């Protein structure tokens, strides 16, 4: 990105003990985004790592101009808040930094945001390796649909990409992994049109 030019996408990675994965995950995302001609910046938000994740992030940000590094508290919501405060893109996206999320879905998410006038687009798992996790996920998501009236089938899956205005001046307050549910609920309460891929 040219200096001062607003990127289309700010992609934020929550980092915890991922020193071996960070550059690989970044390069995979960069390849997909460059091919799709999506202007972007990548934000690595590290907190509580016991390995050399922060040192690796500092090397990445020196090597690649469109990368930023931020340190925050360990709590996922605190990390999301820290990443959001330095994000400049029209859209804000969240992904895991361990490589479990598929970056190839990002251009599809952006297309749905732009062409279908959606406000919030996210991925959905279609299979899990362990049946126990599948059962727990089914129960959790069913409860979220029943209690909160949500229509999504997989609350926690990434990437999640949405209009940055959703949490522009808001500090997320959730504890632990419930931050994904909080973001989805905020979008729902604001009347955002949500699409799951």
Keywords:
18% strand; 197 residues; seven-stranded mixed beta sheet; alpha/beta
Please explain how this structure is put together.
By secondary structure, the protein is of the alpha/beta class. It has six helices and seven strands, in the order E-H-E-H-E-H-E-H-E-H-E-H-E. The chain has helices at residues 22-35, 53-63, 76-86, 106-115, 131-148, 179-189; strands at 9-15, 40-46, 67-71, 91-96, 120-122, 160-163, 194-196. Strands 3-2-1-4-6-5-7 form a seven-stranded mixed β-sheet, sandwiched between helices. The radius of gyration is 16 Å and the shape is globular. It starts with 8 loop residues before the first strand and ends with a strand. The mean pLDDT is 92.
Overview in brief:
The chain has helices at 22-35, 53-63, 76-86, 106-115, 131-148, 179-189, and strands at residues 9-15, 40-46, 67-71, 91-96, 120-122, 160-163, 194-196.
What structural class is derived from the secondary structure elements? alpha/beta
Helical residues, percent: 25-40%
Describe the strand arrangement of the main beta sheet, using strand numbers: 3-2-1-4-6-5-7
SS elements, strand count: 7
Quote the average pLDDT. Answer: 92
Reported for the largest beta sheet, the result is: 7 strands, mixed
What is the approximate shape? globular
> Which oligomeric state applies?
single chain
- Beta-sheet strand percentage? 15-25%
The first-to-last residue Cα distance is 28 Å
The count of helical stretches stands at 6
